[in-house]
Design goal:
This protein has 124 residues and is an alpha+beta fold. It has five helices and four strands; from the N terminus they run E-H-E-H-H-H-E-E-H. The strands form two sheets. The protein has a two-stranded antiparallel ribbon. The protein has a two-stranded antiparallel sheet with strand order 3-4. It is an enzyme of class 2 (transferase).
């Protein structure tokens, strides 16, 4: 691995385990040491470690989760496009859309119990 590259994974974001405060970084020792200095101490509880170990060991579950989230992303994008929104980016678990009226879109989604984040600079 090049000395200036890290791979960082969050269980909440990559595996879809919302609320699990656990992640990891891979890279060259000097770069990881600098990252550790910047991040400071990060306590991880025992249940999170147990869940993380189980998730890492279950390749079939991880593969199934990736397929599920990929398909769900496509469905969500199709629905957004049908509303006239444009896909602006995202991951399998988080999407970014250009809506034309971000405040109206956020309010409409909130009325159906869907929480979204609207960026302060957004007017569309």
């Amino acid at each position: 691995m090049p000395e200036n590259v890290t791979i960082q994974r969050s269980f909440g974001k990559f595996w879809g385990l919302a609320g699990l405060r656990l992640g990891f970084a891979l890279g060259q020792p000097a770069l990881l040491a600098a990252l550790a200095r910047e991040a400071g101490p990060w306590a991880v509880n025992g249940p999170a470690l147990a869940i993380g170990a189980q998730a890492m060991a279950d390749e079939a579950w991880a593969d199934d989760a990736i397929v599920y989230h990929s398909e769900a992303t496509l469905r969500l994008d199709r629905l957004a496009i049908q509303r006239g929104w444009q896909v602006a980016g995202g991951t399998h678990l988080f999407r970014l859309y250009q809506t034309g009226d971000a405040e109206a879109a956020q309010n409409a989604l909130a009325r159906t119990h869907i929480w979204t984040r609207r960026f302060p600079y957004s007017t569309g």
